[in-house]
Write a structure and sequence with these properties.
The protein is α/β, with parallel strands linked by helices. The chain has twelve helices and twelve strands. Helix 1 packs parallel to helix 5, helix 3 packs parallel to helix 5 and helix 6 (about 140-160) packs across helix 7 (about 180-190). The longest helix is centred in the middle third of the chain and has 20 residues, at about 140-160. The N and C termini lie far apart (about 45 Å).
């Protein structure tokens, strides 16, 4: 059953088009493309996929980053071809998606990775992005080296399909492991020619690190960002962009040093007054004050 689905998607992908790559932008002032990580709308999206995507476009976003794909349910009951048509109808593109990859990072099973690559190709994406590492596989420095080796293999598979692989951080990667950190190991041990990083700026700041120092030490590696602000009173909560404690102008001023091509607004917590209005407010602030 799984093979027939894969064959169908692959043949359909070839039939409808070659891979459509989203153009990167070098001048933020001239290109006001603002992306949204759809996980921000995780409560309403599964209930009304079409209506939610329409609202995302009306809020001013032109790019989205996907989440939640599975072999069984695809994208909330829509296969990649159907979801691509929905995005197209609303003037949206999906440069990246967060794909869990099943048990690949634990046991090397590539089934979910292969399906993620197929889905990303159909959607015209540039990136397959790893969103999270299970706690049981990241306890030691040696664990992170093993993870990096598997990431390199997955990245080669992505490259062979015309995609790139990226890694998205939280704060746990910045915890000390002797004289280093998990994040530093991933930066050092992954192939620069194959692996990019999606820097979640909230988690970088929350962990006590400086995004600009990361840019300076690793120029060009952070081709995507997650942009979410930190509540001034409670750092564990998010805030609409521009109302929190993170200073965005100097970070965006160093976008070229970072290598940033796409960024995605994300809200995980603390919606005021509600998720859709919160992300819309963040989008409006970025367009008016930053881009």
């Amino acid at each position: 059953m799984m093979l027939s689905r894969k064959s169908f998607i692959l043949s359909s992908c070839i039939a409808i088009a070659t891979v459509i790559l989203v153009p990167s932008f070098g001048c933020l002032a001239q290109n006001k493309a603002v992306g949204l990580q759809l996980y921000s709308l995780r409560d309403e999206l599964p209930k009304d996929v079409k209506g939610t995507i329409e609202k995302v476009a009306k809020a001013g976003f032109t790019e989205v980053e996907l989440y939640g794909f599975s072999i069984k349910d695809q994208f909330w009951g829509m296969n990649p071809i159907e979801f691509k048509k929905l995005l197209d109808a609303n003037g949206l593109t999906a440069p990246s998606g967060h794909y869990g990859l099943g048990t690949y990072l634990t046991d090397g099973n590539t089934a979910e990775l292969e399906e993620a690559i197929v889905a990303a190709k159909v959607l015209g994406s540039e990136y397959v992005t790893i969103p999270w590492l299970d706690e049981n596989i990241r306890k030691t420095a040696e664990d992170y080296k093993k993870i990096a080796a598997k990431i390199n293999i997955a990245a080669k598979m992505c490259k062979d399909a015309g995609l790139r692989l990226a890694y998205h951080n939280h704060d746990f990667e910045f915890k000390k492991l002797g004289e280093t950190t998990g994040y530093q190991i991933l930066l050092n041990e992954t192939d620069k020619n194959l692996v990019d990083f999606e820097l979640d700026l909230y988690w970088v700041v929350r962990s006590g690190n400086d995004p600009i120092k990361l840019f300076t030490d690793n120029p060009g590696r952070f081709t995507m960002w997650h942009v979410k602000d930190m509540d001034k009173a409670n750092p564990a909560l998010n805030a609409e962009i521009g109302t929190g404690s993170i200073k965005w102008k100097p970070i965006f001023a160093d976008a070229k040093l970072s290598g940033m091509k796409h960024f995605f607004v994300e809200h995980e917590t603390n919606y005021k007054p509600n998720p859709m209005e919160s992300v819309a407010a963040s989008c409006a602030y970025l367009k008016k004050n930053i881009l």
